[in-house]
Amino acid sequence: MSSCSSEDELEPSHKDEIYFFVSNSATDEESVLRRSFYEETGIHLLFNDTLHVEYIGVDGFGDKVYDVEKVDLNYLQTSIISDPIRLGYFKTSDDKLAAVDFIKSSILSHLNGNMRPYSFLLVPSIEMYDDYYEEWNDEDIIKGWRCTAIALEGIGNMDEEEKLELKTTCLYSIVKDVINKMDYFEEFYSYSDPYYGMYKEDFDLPEEYDDEQARQFGFLEDYKSYYYIYPEKDLEYFIQEAVSTTEDEFTSMYGEYPLIMGKYNTLKKRMESIGYIF
Questions:
Q1: Are 117 and 85 in contact (CB under 8 A)?
Q2: Which of 47, 176, 189, 218 has the fewest Cβ atoms within 10 angstroms?
Q3: What is the pLDDT of residues 227-262, one digit of tens each?
């Protein structure tokens, strides 16, 4: 029997902050890795969602009682979710080292200032239970109040294409979460404002996919056969492209389309202003 006080609270507890730190006296391999990661990045590193376990005594039934502090991934940055979350844990030092190398080279190299989380929880798998369909679904990333959990199963054996896909997923999720709190994207939307949500027949265009025409209107590609997408979805596609390509790569692909480049440069400035590093 255990008492998990931090998970029962509606407000995030701050008394567990000390439990994120690794004792200077801890010399095991994982503790040394976590401590050096914090010293290098200023971000706490976790491989388990249990922060602290302390034996309190026994209850009236003779059962042992523990005070348990855990990272509460259900308390998100903008909301609270009630769906159960199930985590796997790395079993070898090599897996942990590969996960840390990926975070440093592919994620933290693009994040600065407030874009960086308080802590990373690196695990091989994250599952969230869907009550409606009564099934567990895999998640790549969950951004909790003071912890970002990332699933990195097989990261040491991934090829460059697989790593790029995972990098894009993680960075997109992190950037989108911050951008969703911002309300000054009028300049970005202005480039394609005449076309958002409009039917192609309104411009005497055939109802068919035409990437070239869509790019003339400022869209990365033609996503619908008979109408043009709405502003919010357009912004999402641009964020995905921005985090998965370098500026030179983006310009090489879309440099001949003035509206696309205008939107990209506007988005790039916004992303840099919140701490994204291109």
A1: no
A2: 176
A3: 999 999 999 999 999 999 999 999 999 999 999 999
